[in-house]
């Protein structure tokens, strides 16, 4: 039976801890300072399910319960775009967004930030163009984290790509399936290099 986006609702609170424990037991834990800005104002702008997922993730990040799998540091989690003189353009390259319109949850290893949008979708903010990428988004944080955890597990050699590729395809997430840039392309390149 094909995995659906709806089946992943609640993933953060239900399964994230177990997955990180299974595939990343020895990874250092995320450690961000207590002074990291509060997520509360942003949660109020999200749809209910998105707010629940982000609140659950935020609690885990702040408690040190999350393995370091997403470049979550004091400079990438809850990043203050305006205080750092960073512009945020929507994917049309014209509409200016504010720091209140996104919440940074981590980095991709190349200085691009993963951000939750007020719609609940997860997107990449490209640091060179300072724009929200349109063709690599995820429907929501639950789906994003489920996908990223598995992609990193494949790249760490802890999970075989064949075991998860059908689910990746059935979920139909642009951030997974985008040619060359999606998580599946990265995981496939890793498997091919073995």
Overview of this structure, please?
It is a single chain. The protein is 38% helix and 11% strand. It is built from 8 helices and 6 strands, in the order ααααββββββαααα. The protein has helices at 11-14, 16-23, 40-43, 48-63, 141-155, 161-171, 174-177, 183-193, and strands at residues 88-89, 96-97, 102-107, 113-117, 122-126, 131-132. β4 and β5 (122-126) form a beta hairpin. The longest helix is centred in the first third of the chain and has 16 residues, at 48-63. The two termini are 30 Å apart. The model has no long low-confidence stretch (mean pLDDT 94).
Beta-strand percentage range? 5-15%
- C-alpha Rg, in Å? 16 Å
The rounded distance between the terminal residues' Cα atoms is 30 Å
Unreliable sequence segments: none
The main sheet orders its strands as: 3-4-5-6
Q: Report the strand count.
A: 6
Query: SSE order, as H and E?
Result: HHHHEEEEEEHHHH
Range of helix content: 25-40%
Give me the number of helical elements. Answer: 8
Shape: globular
What profile does the largest beta sheet have?
A: 4 strands, antiparallel
Structural class: alpha+beta
Provide the descriptors you would attach to this structure in a database record.
single chain; 194 residues; alpha+beta; two-stranded antiparallel sheet; 8 helices
Helices and strands in order:
Layout: H1 11-14, H2 16-23, H3 40-43, H4 48-63, E1 88-89, E2 96-97, E3 102-107, E4 113-117, E5 122-126, E6 131-132, H5 141-155, H6 161-171, H7 174-177, H8 183-193
Antiparallel strand pairs: 1-2, 3-4, 4-5, 5-6
Helix pairs in contact: 2-5, 5-6, 5-8
């Amino acid at each position: 039976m094909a995995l659906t986006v709806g089946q992943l609702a609640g993933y953060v609170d239900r399964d994230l801890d177990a997955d990180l424990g299974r595939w990343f037991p020895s990874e250092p834990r995320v450690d961000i300072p207590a002074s990291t800005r509060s997520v509360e104002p942003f949660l109020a702008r999200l749809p209910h399910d998105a707010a629940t997922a982000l609140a659950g993730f935020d609690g885990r990040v702040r408690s040190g319960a999350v393995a370091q799998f997403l470049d979550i540091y004091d400079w990438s989690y809850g990043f203050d775009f305006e205080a750092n003189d960073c512009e945020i353009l929507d994917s049309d390259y014209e509409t200016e967004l504010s720091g209140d319109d996104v919440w940074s949850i981590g980095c991709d290893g190349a200085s691009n930030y993963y951000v939750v949008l007020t719609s609940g979708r997860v997107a990449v903010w490209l640091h060179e163009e300072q724009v929200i990428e349109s063709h690599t988004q995820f429907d929501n944080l639950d789906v994003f984290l489920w996908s990223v955890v598995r992609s990193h597990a494949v790249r760490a050699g802890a999970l075989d790509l064949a075991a998860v590729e059908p689910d990746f395809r059935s979920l139909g997430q642009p951030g997974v399936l985008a040619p060359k840039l999606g998580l599946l392309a990265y995981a496939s390149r890793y498997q091919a290099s073995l």
